[in-house]
């Protein structure tokens, strides 16, 4: 029995999220059906996490087991033949038996994209949050360091989040402006439901002058979701990469470093 790890890129616009669910088409379902057509056997993917409806991925990690003795390139090229244009297998690697895409992950890198423009962009409407108001980027930048470290992120999660603990480790939060866009990169061990989107929404409210930069530290201390900012739209969020230890698996040692632009 072989364990194959896939790196997957997808545009989440037309999907109800990653995970299979009763109502709506999920990315996981589409890939499992493509793998079944390729392999001639039923496959269940175990992923590195979930993405919500409308969220994208450049480096989702998922694994499955198979008896088929195909070359690794066949898992890429063969599966892609059966996938729609908005989903693609980018890479395939054989990993050790018992590999756990969630449990073995060291960190994940998410990127949020904001379009800084008073005029909407038809080309970017599904991949960026348009913010029309001028933002105080200096104030937003001053707020970023408060996120880093191990904190209770109860104020930065969805109301229906069912996580057993709200404590998470954030390794870095960086911000970069380029060609009319603002990119916010967050690297951490794991995330609560909507956590990055609430972080971004709160930063934008700081940029609008609604909160002072030190409000992030206050929220982490007081854990009050109602005092945090808006939940940024799903369309601007993208899972860039999942990091794993370089112990015979396929990742390099660039842990905690955001993926290149």
TrEMBL record:
<protein>
    <recommendedName>
        <fullName>tRNA pseudouridine synthase A</fullName>
        <ecNumber>5.4.99.12</ecNumber>
    </recommendedName>
</protein>
<dbReference type="InterPro" id="IPR020103">
    <property type="entry name" value="PsdUridine_synth_cat_dom_sf"/>
</dbReference>
<comment type="subunit">
    <text>Homodimer.</text>
</comment>
<dbReference type="GO" id="GO:0003723">
    <property type="term" value="F:RNA binding"/>
</dbReference>
<keyword id="KW-0819">tRNA processing</keyword>
<feature type="active site" description="Nucleophile">
    <location>
        <position position="52"/>
    </location>
</feature>
<dbReference type="InterPro" id="IPR020097">
    <property type="entry name" value="PsdUridine_synth_TruA_a/b_dom"/>
</dbReference>
<feature type="binding site">
    <location>
        <position position="110"/>
    </location>
    <ligand>
        <name>substrate</name>
    </ligand>
</feature>
<feature type="domain" description="Pseudouridine synthase I TruA alpha/beta">
    <location>
        <begin position="145"/>
        <end position="245"/>
    </location>
</feature>
<dbReference type="InterPro" id="IPR001406">
    <property type="entry name" value="PsdUridine_synth_TruA"/>
</dbReference>
<comment type="function">
    <text>Formation of pseudouridine at positions 38, 39 and 40 in the anticodon stem and loop of transfer RNAs.</text>
</comment>
<dbReference type="InterPro" id="IPR020095">
    <property type="entry name" value="PsdUridine_synth_TruA_C"/>
</dbReference>
<dbReference type="InterPro" id="IPR020094">
    <property type="entry name" value="TruA/RsuA/RluB/E/F_N"/>
</dbReference>
<dbReference type="GO" id="GO:0160147">
    <property type="term" value="F:tRNA pseudouridine(38-40) synthase activity"/>
</dbReference>
<keyword id="KW-0413">Isomerase</keyword>
<feature type="domain" description="Pseudouridine synthase I TruA alpha/beta">
    <location>
        <begin position="8"/>
        <end position="95"/>
    </location>
</feature>
<comment type="similarity">
    <text>Belongs to the tRNA pseudouridine synthase TruA family.</text>
</comment>
<dbReference type="Pfam" id="PF01416">
    <property type="entry name" value="PseudoU_synth_1"/>
</dbReference>
<dbReference type="GO" id="GO:0031119">
    <property type="term" value="P:tRNA pseudouridine synthesis"/>
</dbReference>
